Amino acid sequence: MAEFTMELNDEQKEVRDWIHGFAADVVRPAAAEWDEREETPWPVIQEAAKIGLYSLDFYAQQFFDPTGLGIPMTMEELFWGDAGIALSIVGTGLAAVGVLANGTEEQIGTWVPQMYGDANDVKVAAFCSSEPDAGSDVASMRTRAVYDEAKGEWVLNGTKTWATNGGIANVHVVVAVVDPELGSKGHASFIVPPNTPGLSQGQKFKKHGIRASHTAEVVLEDVRVPGHCLLGGKGKLDERLARAREKAKAGGERVKNAAMATFEASRPAVGAMAVGTARAAYEEALEYATTREQFGRPIIDNQGVAFQLADMRTQIDAARLLVWRASWMATTGKPFTSAEGSMSKLFASETAKKVTAQAIQILGGNGFTREYPVERMHRDAAIYTIFEGTSEIQRLVIARTLSGMPIR
Ligand SMILES: Cc1cc2nc3c(=O)[nH]c(=O)nc-3n(C[C@H](O)[C@H](O)[C@H](O)COP(=O)(O)OP(=O)(O)OC[C@H]3O[C@@H](n4cnc5c(N)ncnc54)[C@H](O)[C@@H]3O)c2cc1C
């Protein structure tokens, strides 16, 4: 088990500087263009693939970094470059983690490489859980998966929404209901292989921010997938369902809302994305405040401006510390007794929204235009308090964990 340290080791520093170089030289210069185009920045993903930054190997290395800091460091640097492009690069990771967490060795080996493709033919993947009537309330999911015994196939029907890379993905990971009586305990995840008939893209959303990242509905109409596409396998699912039915019969465990109970370990990664965006806006604001002159002196000479920058930086550093603590806890298997993962995501995402708004204020009229990046960063920052559980859901999780009470 790795000792906790506040300092990245030499190898991590080297990787961080390498990612930062890509973010500064390739991602940031392309940000405004892809934000306006509202399209997946395939050429940038391809560049990332060419240098090994968009690859299963790279993410696996960071995911299994024993200090826990590999993923937050990667997210912070990439999202410092640009949130929309960065999400296009790391969005596949959400689906890959779904397979790594629940899949068998064989499933991981078969499907995760197909999610990334290769440098000459890059692919992306999508993780599809949310539905029009099941956002925060994951337990009200309706997409059904029914097993066709005769053919040994699962048949999926339903509509997913807000799926990052939905419809353009090579591989879709779809969460569906296998036993409606069991709430979120009756859900299972399925691989939908490339070109499976019945899966189509619905509406593609025009968004407020992270516009370079593709977000769309995914429609599943009699989608048939082979039995081996059930993540974890049928034996494991049957055992899990039997246990859940026993508990439900005994009147024991309250069936929890999955959105409130899970993701504790993955939320710090979203916090790290928020730290990256916040830091980028803060740096722009600091630079502007020291060079912009009014009343014959740089605007940072005014306490009103300087103190804002002091608060911005303090909050960003505090957010990073919460993120690093939670990532280290996740990697070293420490129990999240105070919902530390949710705390990190809540604080970092709210910080990003606040800091990017302050950056606009410090840049004045220029901050309000698309000539300067802080306007885009503020639009992008709004997503962090919404996806992977809204800020309200994080507060619910934290309050319930601390109190043990079923706070609504
Ligand atoms: C750009 C983008 C990308 C996304 N990518 C993916 C993806 O790849 N895969 C995927 O599955 N999903 C994805 N999502 C979905 C995302 O996770 C959901 O939007 C999120 O969980 C919130 O659900 P909702 O939008 O239905 O809001 P709702 O759940 O309807 O919430 C609306 C408001 O009510 C509040 N609220 C709800 N319940 C409570 C409560 N109990 N107490 C207090 N307040 C409450 C919420 O905090 C929010 O303010 C994405 C969303 C966006 C916008």
Automatic annotation (TrEMBL):
Domain Acyl-CoA dehydrogenase/oxidase C-terminal: 258-402
Domain Acyl-CoA oxidase/dehydrogenase middle span(s) in chain numbering: 126-223
Family recorded in the similarity comment: Belongs to the acyl-CoA dehydrogenase family.
Keywords, comma-separated and alphabetical: FAD, Flavoprotein, Oxidoreductase
InterPro entries membership: Acyl-CoA_DH_CS (IPR006089), Acyl-CoA_Oxase/DH_mid-dom (IPR006091), Acyl-CoA_Oxase/DH_mid-dom_sf (IPR046373), AcylCo_DH-like_C (IPR036250), AcylCo_DH/oxidase_C (IPR009075), AcylCoA_DH/ox_N (IPR013786), AcylCoA_DH/ox_N_sf (IPR037069), AcylCoA_DH/oxidase_NM_dom_sf (IPR009100)
Cofactor(s) of this protein: FAD
Name by which UniProt lists this protein: Acyl-CoA dehydrogenase
Source species of the chain: Streptomyces nigrescens
Domain Acyl-CoA dehydrogenase/oxidase N-terminal: 9-115
Signal peptide (residue range): none
